[in-house]
């Protein structure tokens, strides 16, 4: 009898790749110490190489760090990066130079929490196929803290307006999980903690049906910026029935025809230095190897 496959398990929806989180930083040197030296990520060598912006590669995703008033994401970013002990050693190595900032790090059962010099929180996980698919280095999710009673309506907004599948998860608080690519999600977790003011940070994803969501957002007066032929933005997530505001975060929405879609990214191996250099080991792999192929 032919093998039966669950074809729906491979459906992505309209979003096919989550690329970057954009957070302003006031000091490029301190940002380098945290993201490059401490976390072990890689500054993009081709784009944004001056002292006013910095793109940090994390597998096929990025952190964009333009200079400006510090921005703090209301929630945290999930990061898959191999080697907990090496990560802890790197973070410890920059602690002295980051004294007097919000920098901190701590071990937890399944992750290391690292806090940037301005208060942004990252949860750093070892690769785990059951949780993050084949990601060996990358950003599997961004989680936002949202007001109580909003996740059900958020779950309705994304499929209807953006064509992005969403589901409710229960556990440690109610969470709306929105699919933004293979093994990538935006998570919205309900909390009773007071909400800080939105400060302008943004997230970016690529979608295939580019004009359909645009028309729906435009009809509700939700388009916040027209960037170019390949890109637009919106900020507000609303209740589809009442129009009630639910949450604000800028979404940079790009078409799959965008010139930078799936641009190859350099990812260095942070274990390599001038004392232990070995040919062929300069780069880190962003996906699990063929021995772990799930097919």
Task: Provide a descriptive summary of the structure in words.
This protein is α+β, with helices and mostly antiparallel strands and 295 residues long. The protein has one domain (11-275): Roll (2,3-Dihydroxybiphenyl 1,2-Dioxygenase, domain 1), CATH 3.10.180. It is 16% helix and 34% strand. It has helices spanning 28-38, 84-94, 129-132, 151-162, 211-219, and strands spanning 15-22, 42-43, 55-58, 61-64, 75-81, 104-107, 112-115, 121-125, 137-147, 166-169, 175-181, 184-191, 202-207, 223-228, 231-238, 245-255. The protein is globular and about 60 Å long. Keywords: Metal-binding. InterPro entries: Glyas_Bleomycin-R_OHBP_Dase, Glyoxalase_1_CS. GO terms for molecular function: lactoylglutathione lyase activity; metal ion binding. This is VOC domain-containing protein.
Distance between the termini: 19 Å
Q: Could you say which structural class the secondary elements and strand pairing correspond to?
A: alpha+beta
Taking all residues together, what is the mean pLDDT? 94
What is the CATH homology-level superfamily? 2,3-Dihydroxybiphenyl 1,2-Dioxygenase, domain 1
User: What string, H for helix and E for strand, traces the elements in order?
Assistant: EHEEEEHEEEHEHEEEEHEEE
Radius of gyration: 19 Å
Count of individual helical segments: 5
**Segments where pLDDT lies below 50 for 5+ residues?**
none
């Amino acid at each position: 009898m032919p093998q039966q496959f669950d074809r729906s398990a491979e459906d992505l929806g309209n979003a096919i790749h989550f690329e970057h989180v954009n957070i302003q930083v006031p000091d490029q040197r301190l940002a380098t110490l945290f993201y490059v030296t401490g976390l072990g990520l890689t500054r993009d060598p081709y784009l944004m190489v001056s002292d006013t912006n910095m793109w940090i590669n994390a597998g096929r995703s990025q952190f964009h760090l333009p200079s400006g008033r510090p921005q703090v994401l209301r929630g945290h970013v999930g990061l898959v990066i191999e080697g907990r002990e090496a990560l802890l050693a790197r973070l410890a190595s920059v602690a002295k130079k980051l004294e007097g900032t919000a920098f901190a790090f701590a071990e937890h059962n399944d992750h290391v929490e690292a806090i940037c010099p301005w208060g942004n929180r990252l949860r750093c996980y070892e690769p785990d196929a059951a949780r993050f698919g084949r990601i060996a280095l990358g950003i599997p999710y961004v989680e936002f803290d949202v007001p109580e009673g909003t996740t059900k309506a958020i779950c309705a907004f994304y499929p209807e307006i953006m064509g992005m599948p969403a589901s409710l998860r229960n556990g440690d608080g109610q969470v709306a999980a929105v699919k933004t690519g293979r093994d990538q999600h935006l998570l919205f977790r309900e909390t009773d903690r007071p909400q800080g003011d939105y400060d302008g940070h943004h997230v970016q994803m690529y979608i295939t049906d580019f004009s359909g969501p645009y028309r729906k957002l435009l009809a509700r007066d939700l388009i916040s910026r027209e960037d170019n032929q390949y890109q637009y933005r919106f900020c507000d997530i609303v209740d589809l029935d009442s129009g009630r505001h639910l949450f604000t975060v800028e979404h940079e929405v790009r078409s799959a025809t965008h010139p930078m879609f799936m641009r190859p990214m350099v990812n260095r191996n942070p274990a390599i230095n001038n004392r232990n250099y070995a040919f062929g080991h300069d780069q880190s792999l962003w996906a699990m190897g063929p021995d772990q192929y799930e097919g």
